[in-house]
Structure formats: C-alpha cells, structure tokens
Amino acid sequence: MPLTETTLSKAKGELAAAAKKAGAEPQYAIFYSSSVGGQLWCPGCRQVEGVVKKSFEAAGKPNGTIVYVGNINEWKDKGNKGRTEYALTHVPTILRLEGVGVAAQATADAQGKETGRLVGGQIANSSHLKTLLTGGEVPRYEP
Predict the structure, then answer these.
(1) Phi, psi of 142 (to 5 degrees)
(2) 74: containing domain
(3) Model pTM?
(4) Pairing status of strand 63-68 against strand 27-32
(5) Rounded to 5 degrees, what angle do the CA atoms 27, 137, 14 make?
(6) How many distinct structural domains can be found in the chain?
C-alpha cells in the first residue's frame, strides 16, 4: 500500500481513519521533519527516506502514514504535539500501532496502541526494521 502523508495537527484523525480502513492489520506512523527548501531539514530523516519507501510502498507491504513534525523551531518546542502526544524524542521515529478494529474504533484511542518503536539510526538497520514490520520485539533506543 502506498504511504500516506499528514501533519501533526491532523495525525490523530488520519491515523484513526487509516486504522479503520486496514482493520486488524498493524499501522505504522513514520515521524519525519518537515521539508524546508524542498528537502527534509533533518539529516537522519533524509538518510532513511529511501529504505522507508522501499519497506512500505510495494504491494503487500504494511500500511504507513508519514507524519511531519514541523520545521526545526516547531520541533524544538517542548509543546510540539509529537513530543506531547507520541512521546517523541528524535526524528525520524517509526511507531507500530496495533489493536485497531471494531473495539478500538469505539474508544478514544482509535489509532491503536503502540507495540513497537524504532528511533533514528535504528531505522537504517535492516534487521531492526524487518523485526518491527513483522511484529517482533525491537531493541529499546539508547541515545
């Protein structure tokens, strides 16, 4: 399935809609910096962009939504929704969200429960990314 894109201000609604469409399949929220001057301002985001596309855009691949966290000043703000609503400390970050479907859709957490997270350079590690995408337990990020 192709990747979809959204902004932090629309993320909860967009992720919930994608989860409803996907049913019981896991959803993946991919948090990137926003584009400035035609490219992502975060070097780490630019570094993993190709591997993320390859992992999500082919037929039979998992459902992913790219969520842009804002420009560098918006990201550095401690009140940034990525920081407050998704506990992000770094971009890029990929969250695996599960438990969506009929029961979750009736609750406030219709986008699902986080069951896995990759941060920064972990995404470029093909073993870690494959483990996340196949439902396995990934190592905790240590900055």
Answers:
(1) -120, 110
(2) 4-133
(3) 0.88
(4) parallel
(5) 15
(6) 1
Cα angle at 139 between 96 and 41, to 5 degrees? 65
pLDDT digits (tens, 9 = 90+) for 83-102: 999 999 999 999 998 875 54
CB 20 within 8 A of CB 81: no
Of residues 23 and 85, the one with the higher pLDDT is 85
In a domain, 140, yes or no: no
Q: Is the pLDDT of residue 47 over 80?
A: yes
pLDDT at res. 107: 40
Residue 98's CATH number: 3.40.30.10
Asked whether residue 142 is assigned to any structural domain, the reply reads: no
In a domain, 143, yes or no: no
Residue indicated by tokens 């630019």 = 46
Instruction: Note the pLDDT of residue 26.
Output: 87
